[in-house]
């Protein structure tokens, strides 16, 4: 009776005997990894399907299969082997996942889950096969839903390009952060207008084209550079076109034109122009193989690495042990919680009195998963008013991240929009918000964890990671001091005076916590 392995085929080319066992082991390991980290894979799949920024990622798996098929004719000449340094690579990938799990950073969890798939290839197939699959293994990175972190900077760049083109076209315009005021109305370069979705799709396309169509490294670099620069410039032109059309046809017509014409056709045209511009410089011959198995076999470095073989059973046991260690550590860290007081309250501040909270447009920061929340107002003797929001967390993790996406001063799905960075305050993150296109608000955010006082989400994440790695219990506090701009009473001035009365924000937050 023929075995299942003997019936496996790759298209018309039968799989050599030396490949059948290793491929079955790799397939089994991939199934186990996807099942073990199913929550992360399900989250990525939802993002690929539901979020337009990542819809292009749905094409990456078939592209990866095609890239492997391109190389199969040469790969089948190489004998796979288990390679013990692959455990170091797999351990590094598992550690990335662990850092994401204990910090609540989904991006790191997802990157780690994908990296574990990639790291299992050199572990179970060896360095020679991995050398032949180097580009597909690196291209796995485009499965990670990455790019939303660029939205803010792309908004600012697009706004600058747009207002420059608006001035060149003879239309008077005044820019304030991401808002552009013109005779036809006030335009916002919103998150959806940042161009991030086209940028990350173009980069994925550019990297693929650079590998498949070019041999020269300078040409590859130019291709990828063009796929970064062109979509950013094109998005600025798109935004300018909307403003220009609004001067002639009205803002509503221009907005509809932007979503229908530009959304469906403009960037397709830009992509076509990039391809046409690069076509004549393609330097890879059509019959040229993507890899050379003989050259890989002659490489001294790959030869030395290939000597580090290990039995398949040892490789599989090591992989399972590393995977279970990461899962167990994450499980233990997720159950660490610092003791908190049963109740907290905003303290008295010298020279300021508590007042009813009555913003002209409702503003309430997001603090999902916080154990305590406080929101109130203070007024001084000269009529300056500040709003104070404080959230206290016993621990940080999934669903309770002080610096997580959508958390903090900008209320999601509300009348408030991010406008620009605000005036700097020591250790804080300052942001200008615009409510309903007319009310300006300044919000300054601080995070407190142990002795750390910062406005940086990244520094907070690092502190939380350190706590969880050491299984250390420390609460996290988020403080947001905010004020609306008022005639003769700038928000920045009101916040500065309030902070001079409270003293250092870190010490003030400690008093509210009642833990020091």
From TrEMBL:
GO terms for molecular function: peptidase activity. It comes from the Bacteria. One of its GO terms (cellular component) is plasma membrane. Coiled coil: none annotated. It is found in: Cell membrane. InterPro entries: EpsH-like, Exo/Archaeosortase_dom, Exosortase, Exosortase-1, Methanolan_biosynth_EpsI. This is ABC transporter related protein. NCBIfam families: 8TM_EpsH, EpsI_fam, exo_archaeo, exosort_XrtA. One of its GO terms (biological process) is proteolysis. The chain crosses the membrane at residues 23-42, 54-72, 84-102, 114-142, 196-214, 221-241, 261-282, 313-332. Residues 320-504 form the Methanolan biosynthesis EpsI domain. It is a multi-pass membrane protein. Keywords: Cell membrane, Hydrolase, Membrane, Protease, Transmembrane, Transmembrane helix. Pfam families: DUF3485, Exosortase_EpsH.
């Amino acid at each position: 009776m023929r075995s299942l392995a003997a019936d496996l085929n790759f298209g018309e080319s039968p799989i050599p005997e030396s490949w059948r066992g290793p491929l079955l082991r790799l397939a089994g390991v991939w199934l186990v990894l996807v099942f073990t980290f199913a929550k992360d894979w399900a989250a990525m799949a939802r993002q690929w399907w539901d979020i337009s920024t990542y819809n292009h990622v749905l094409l990456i798996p078939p592209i990866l299969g095609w890239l492997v098929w391109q190389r199969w004719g040469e790969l089948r000449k190489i004998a796979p082997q288990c390679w013990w340094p692959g455990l170091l690579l797999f351990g590094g990938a598992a550690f990335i996942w662990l850092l994401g799990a204990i910090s609540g950073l989904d991006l790191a969890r997802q990157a780690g889950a994908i990296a574990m798939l990639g790291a299992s290839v050199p572990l179970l197939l060896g360095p020679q096969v991995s050398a032949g699959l180097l580009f597909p293994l690196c291209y796995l990175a485009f499965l990670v839903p990455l790019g939303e972190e660029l939205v803010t900077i792309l908004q600012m760049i697009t706004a600058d390009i747009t207002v420059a083109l608006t001035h060149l076209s003879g239309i008077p315009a005044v820019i304030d952060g991401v808002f552009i005021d013109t005779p036809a109305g006030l335009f916002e370069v919103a998150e959806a207008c940042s161009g991030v979705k086209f940028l990350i799709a173009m980069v994925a396309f550019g990297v693929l084209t650079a590998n498949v169509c070019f041999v020269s490294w300078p040409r590859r670099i130019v291709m990828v550079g063009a796929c970064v620069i062109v979509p950013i410039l094109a998005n600025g032109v798109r935004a300018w076109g909307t403003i220009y059309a609004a001067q002639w046809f009205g803002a509503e017509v221009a907005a509809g034109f932007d979503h229908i014409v530009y959304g469906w056709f403009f960037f397709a045209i830009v992509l076509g122009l990039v391809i046409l511009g690069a076509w004549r410089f393609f330097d890879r011959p059509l019959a040229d193989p993507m890899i050379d198995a003989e050259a890989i076999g002659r490489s001294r470095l790959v030869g030395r690495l290939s000597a580090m073989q290990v039995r398949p059973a040892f490789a599989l046991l090591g992989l399972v042990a590393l995977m279970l260690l990461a899962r167990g550590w994450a499980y233990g860290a997720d159950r660490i919680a610092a003791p908190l007081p049963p109740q907290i309250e905003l303290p008295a501040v010298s020279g300021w009195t508590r007042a009813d909270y009555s913003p002209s447009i409702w503003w309430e920061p997001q603090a999902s998963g916080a154990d305590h929340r406080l929101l109130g107002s203070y007024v001084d003797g000269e009529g300056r008013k500040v709003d104070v929001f404080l959230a206290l967390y016993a621990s940080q993790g999934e669903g309770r991240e002080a610096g997580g996406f959508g958390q903090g001063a900008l209320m999601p799905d509300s009348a408030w929009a991010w406008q620009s960075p605000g005036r700097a305050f020591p250790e804080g993150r300052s942001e200008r918000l615009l409510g309903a296109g007319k009310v300006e608000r300044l919000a300054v955010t601080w995070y407190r964890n142990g002795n750390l006082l910062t406005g940086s989400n990244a520094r907070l994440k690092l502190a939380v990671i350190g706590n969880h790695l050491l299984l250390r219990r420390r609460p996290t506090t988020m403080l947001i001091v905010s004020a609306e701009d008022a005639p003769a009473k700038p928000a920045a001035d009101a916040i500065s005076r309030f902070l001079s009365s409270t003293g250092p924000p870190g010490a003030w937050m400690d008093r509210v916590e009642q833990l020091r």
